[in-house]
Design a protein that fits this description.
79 residues; mainly alpha; 0% strand
């Protein structure tokens, strides 16, 4: 049984890997002004979503569910 790759999940994993690397690269812009200080903190905040993205993408591959959004919405509204 041959498995097909899911391209959007691969792209999400690549994005998550880049964000994790950026999060662990302790670069700083010292005394470059308020804007750059804000950008540094903003980018570090964005990077915090990398691990959950990676875990969800991996879980989607492992579980192999064939569910559409309509079924998910119905299940969540039922409780």
């Amino acid at each position: 049984m041959e498995r097909q790759r899911i391209i959007y999940l691969d792209i999400l994993k690549i994005l998550a890997i880049i964000l994790v690397i950026f999060n662990h690269s302790h670069w700083s812009i010292a005394n470059e002004g308020t804007f750059w200080n804000f950008m540094q903190h903003f980018l570090y905040g964005v990077c915090k979503c990398a691990v959950p993205i990676f875990i969800m993408a991996t879980g989607a591959v492992i579980l192999k569910r064939e569910t559409n959004y309509k079924e998910i919405l119905k299940a969540s509204l039922r409780g």
